[in-house]
Specification:
Layout lengths: L1 E11 L5 E11 L4 E3 L1 H9 L6 E6 L5 E6 L3 H14 L7 H6 L4 H10 L2 E7 L2 E2 L6 E6 L5 E11 L1
Antiparallel strand pairs: 1-2, 2-9, 3-8, 4-6, 4-9, 5-8, 6-7
Length: 154
C-alpha cells in the first residue's frame, strides 16, 4: 500500500480552516479485508491539520469501508455474515445482464457503504481500542484500488 502524495489538494479560508485530500493505493484479492488504519493515520500526519474530521471514500461499486476489530475470527465471521445476507450462488439480475458474476459484490458494497467519517484530534485518529479502519474487497476478482482521504479541520 502506498500513500500517493502526487495528488494533494489543499484549500483554506481566512480562519485557517483547511481541506486536504490524499489518496492511498493498493492491490487486493477477491474477498480480502485490508486493515488501512496505519496508512490513513500516516496520511493525516502528512498534513498540517491538528483537529477535524476525515472522510475515507471508495470510488467504485464493489468495494466498501468500515471499522472492525481486525482479527482473523471476526474477519471470517464478517465474510460468513455477508454470504448469508447476499449469497454468491443465487441469481442476480445484474449477472444476467452483464455476465460478470459479481451481482452479490454490488449488493454487499451497497449495504456496507463507500465511505466512513473518522474524527481526529492532536493529529491522531479517534478510534476505539480494538477498532481498525478496513477496506473490503467485495468483487470477485483482484483489483487495484485508490481510496480518497479528505480531511477537514484546523
Amino acid at each position: 500500500m502506498t500513500a500517493n502524495e502526487k495528488c494533494v489538494i489543499r484549500l483554506s479560508d481566512e480562519r485557517g480552516a483547511l481541506i486536504e485530500t490524499r489518496y492511498i493505493e493498493f492491490e487486493t484479492d477477491k474477498g480480502e479485508v485490508v486493515d488501512i488504519t496505519d496508512e490513513v493515520q500516516k496520511s493525516l500526519e502528512s498534513t498540517s491539520l491538528k483537529a477535524g474530521a476525515m472522510v475515507i471514500f471508495v470510488p467504485g461499486a464493489t468495494g466498501a469501508v468500515t471499522t472492525i476489530e481486525y482479527e482473523d475470527g471476526l474477519v471470517a465471521d464478517l465474510g460468513d455474515a455477508l454470504e448469508r445476507i447476499a449469497p454468491q450462488n443465487i441469481d442476480y439480475s445484474h449477472n444476467l445482464r452483464w455476465h460478470d458474476g459479481n451481482g452479490h459484490s454490488h449488493i454487499r458494497a451497497s449495504l456496507i457503504g463507500p465511505s466512513l467519517i473518522v474524527p481526529f484530534a492532536a493529529r491522531r485518529l479517534i478510534l476505539g481500542t480494538w477498532q481498525q479502519i478496513v477496506f473490503l474487497e467485495l468483487d470477485n476478482r483482484k483489483r487495484h484500488r485508490k481510496l480518497v482521504l479528505q480531511m477537514m479541520g484546523e
